[in-house]
Amino acid sequence: MGGQAAVVPEVDIVQAMSLFPTPVVRARLPDAVALNAELTAQIDARIAGYPSVAKSNLGGWQSDDDFPAWGGAPARRLVAAVCALADRVTVLVEDGALVRRGVPWRVNAWVNVNGAGDANDMHAHPGAYWSCVYYVAADDLGAAAGGELEFHDPRGTMPTMYAPQLKAAFEGCVTAGLWERLQPATGELILFPSWLLHAVRPYHGPARRISIAFNLCL
Fold first, then answer.
1. pLDDT exceeding 90 applies to what percent of the chain?
2. CATH assignment of 25-217, given 2.60.120.620, 3.40.50.1000, 3.30.1180.10, 1.10.3720.10?
3. Is residue 134 within 8 Å of 193, Cβ to Cβ?
4. CA–CA separation, 75 vs 21, rounded Å?
């Protein structure tokens, strides 16, 4: 009897929960070609008359955060699309209930134009609830172009401090304590919480990469 292996009872998993997740939403604008051409014309006109500001950008050209004021009709259409996307993934707490309705977002936005070797340093966007990036021109060359949008685990290195070789067997947990990198595409919107630390990896494509960043606040 003593030499027999113990019988391990099978455990029924009743529920596997993902508590306190960090939402990141990827969306596409349909028929974005015409809009992107209009946005590019507005941006090129701005570049011709205004020098770059110095914020998170490491090289390249970055506008001030008043893009909605000078971007004209295409900027207004894009702002409306970003706000509509945010409304789809936001609920309000009213009298103890969760209510879905439009939020009176206040929006500021700015343009990033990166060439070969340009990047954006790690940062967050204090004072806002959602942030979003829209890609006017992402070159669509895939991983070879670099320039990925990099998100850092908001818990820092804590999940890797004890035994970094152990990973929870749940979606999104393999990179706990590290980072996730998203390769963008032209016409894509990426929406994320403004407190989430993020950066843009050095870009290596042959054409300009043009993106517009948004902050949505109350």
1. 89
2. 2.60.120.620
3. no
4. 31
